[in-house]
Model the fold of this input.
Amino acid sequence: AQKITQTQPGMFVQEKEAVTLDCTYDTSDPSYGLFWYKQPSSGEMIFLIYQGSYDQQNATEGRYSLNFQKARKSANLVISASQLGDSAMYFCAMRERADRGSTLGRLYFGRGTQLTVWP
Amino acid sequence: DTGVSQDPRHKITKRGQNVTFRCDPISEHNRLYWYRQTLGQGPEFLTYFQNEAQLEKSRLLSDRFSAERPKGSFSTLEIQRTEQGDSAMYLCASSLGGVIVYTFGSGTRLTVV
Done:
């Protein structure tokens, strides 16, 4: 089974509007972390936001917020006030607890959502 | 430049040839990761180093693939007898122990013709 599912291959949003990118995850580990990365055409993966499974509040970083619904196993990214420079591929990822509580561990990525911001 | 550096950015090779990629992590980062990203997919984990020790390898890393980090600094990823299915973006990332977030490089795009 897929650990991360992103059901929106592409999304379009007008500049200055808000947009929500969907992500659902699958894990039986009670301790995990959820990430969103942005990948522009240059290829680099740019970290946007992180949510730990035990965090009580939704994470926010500037114009990015993560709508974390633990019971539904969803971790949607909300981008407010979209800008033309936000056009890129967006990936949701999860890290499960590694052995013995270490913070290391592989990331599992979804297939991504291509966001296009139009003027 | 204090980011993760990967070289080359692009590589075109003929099927059957060997290729080697290099990753220079952020200098104080002791952890280094390799991921592979094929067209239309998210990155998939290949292998992980802590200092010079290779601690984890994915089953995606067939015996044609080998990765090293000889002095716990830069790392190389070699693919022997390349196949067309090896065409992908190879991403390197690094992190400091205890820190949750990786820093990724810009990747090496491999095309096997």
In short: The longest strand of chain B covers residues 88-95. Chain B has a mean pLDDT of 92. Chain B touches chain A at residues 31, 33, 35, 40-45, 48, 50, 56, 58, 89, 91, 93, 95, 97-107, 109 (CB under 8 Å). The CA atoms of residues 35 and 45 of chain B lie 4 Å apart.
